[in-house]
Amino acid sequence: MAAKTLTIDGQMVGAAEDQTILEAARDAGIHIPTLCHLEGVQDVGACRLCLVEVTGINKLLPACVTKVTEGWEVRTSSERLQRYRRMVVELLFAERNHVCAVCVANGHCELQNLAVSVGMDHVRFDYQHPRLDVDLSHRLFGMDHNRCVLCTRCVRTCWYIEGAGTLNVAGRGEKSKIITDLNAPWGDSTTCTSCGKCVMACPTGALFYRGVTVAEMERDRGHLEYIVTAREKKQWIV
Amino acid sequence: MDRLRLATVWLGGCSGCHMSFLDLDEWLLELAARVDLVYSPIVDHKVYPDNVDLCLIEGAVANHDNLELVHRIRERTHVLVSFGDCAVTGNVTAMRNPLRKTEPVLKRAYVELADVLPRIPAEPGIVPTLLDRVAAVHEIVPVEYYLPGCPPPAERIRTLLSQLVEGREPRLNGGLIKPG
To answer: What pTM did the predictor assign?
Structure first.
């Protein structure tokens, strides 16, 4: 496979032609923040946290779904990008009811960690405080729409790793929500295999094991990648 | 050196942030040597005074008393700190906001769950009425600094206060701004 040469934050980087900017940066030890990206699950560029600048291109590009190109000069952490990333995280907090103090994922939450890493000490946008449900109809799992950031990691996991196709996105804009089957209660789903991979994929406290309480929801983030690597490469690497 | 005129107030919150403040233990003696505590739930001053240098505000703006006080504080204080998650985000205090009105909250607490005398309290001039929408402090008045955490650990309070008392521009970064 042909190699591409580019610079990321001034550092000369070699990458395979099918690699994304995100993969090339990580191989080079350069950290780009992400939220909707999860190792082992295909990328969609939904959260906009991994946006980068490329010299000569007027718009910002999502690193997770942009392939490397010969000669590109990529910048991952300009003052403008840092400003936008903080804004993205603030908007996520303002959009729904993320009450860290009483959340099952407190202390183990990717959104909370992002808030710290982008320097969010407060939210400058008006909190929307939407009225949202918690689906506790499933025997094993719960879905709290208050904590959902619509990253769709659970949906992609359900469709492409488990192959069940139970989870989906309904609605548009602020009315968007994750649904099970045709918007029936999760416990009534005829397609859900109760595998729990969606719960493993969730970055926040939106999907959880029933019975966990504040700060108890920890997950094995590497498990999905392990399953996918085993399936596609026949390598059982723990 | 002039002593810093410090105030702390307790709006719509659980007082956990003030408990955490008390967790500063012996450092409180060092602080006491540098400041005059001119208004606080832990001292006996009835009226928020003029010309306060620094005020830590615990709690969200949840009722009309809070609202009036927070405006008075802003008028009379040089530097405001949103002290803890309720002040910074609304936090647990604001969890009633999706209901949009106070009536279902009061009914649940004082009627549906009452063991005796179910009635919604209404004592004008004594019991302040709730606001329909609980607000973070900076949604009402400008705030200089933010101290997230539920509650902010004592060490975090000390980091901010020591910087402010020494007249330095405070810096809280890394894990020190973690909410929750």
So the answer is: 0.95
Q: What b-and-e string marks burial along A137-163, b requiring 16 or more CB atoms within 10 Å of the CB?
A: ebeebbbbbbbbbbbbbbbbbbbebbe
For strands B35-39 and B4-10, give the pairing: parallel
Contacts of residue A81, Cβ cutoff 8 Å, sequence gap at least 6: A51, A52, A53, A60, A75
- In DSSP notation, A51-116 reads EEEETT-SS-EETTT-B--TT-EEES--HHHHHHHHHHHHHHHHHTT--GGG-TTTTS-HHHHHHH
Domain of residue A112 covers: 84-233
Strands (E), chain A: 3-8, 11-16, 51-54, 61-62, 73-75, 134-135, 141-144, 167-170, 177-180, 207-209
Which chain B residue has its CA at the smallest distance from A95's CA? B98
Task: Decide if B51 contacts B3 (C-beta within 8 A).
Answer: no
Phi then psi for B81, rounded to 5 degrees?
Answer: -120, 125
Give me the pLDDT at residue A221, please. Answer: 81
The whole-angstrom distance between A117's CA and the closest CA on chain B is 7
3-class SS at A226? helix
Q: What band does B1 get if pLDDT is binned at 50, 70 and 90?
A: low
Q: Is residue A238 part of a domain?
A: no
Q: Which residues are bridge partners to A168 per DSSP? A: A179
Contact B179 A115 (CB under 8 A): yes
Please state whether the peptide bond connecting residue B151 to the residue before it is cis, i.e. omega within 30 degrees of 0.
Answer: yes
Tokens (6 digits) for A191: 């397609």
Percent of chain B residues past pLDDT 90, beyond the cut: 94
Of A100, A119, A120, the CB nearest to B180: A100
- Per domain, the residue ranges of chain B are 4-95+130-169
Residue B125 vs residue A21, higher pLDDT = A21
Tell me the residue type at A13: V
CATH of the domain at A56: 3.10.20.740
Give the number of domains in chain A: 2
Would you say domain B4-95+130-169 falls under CATH 3.40.50.700? yes
A–B CB contacts, 8 A cutoff, strictly below: 67
Q: Indicate the Cα dihedral angle B8, B78, B130, A90, nearest 10°.
A: -100
ipTM above 0.90, yes or no: yes
pLDDT of residue A133 exceeding 70: yes
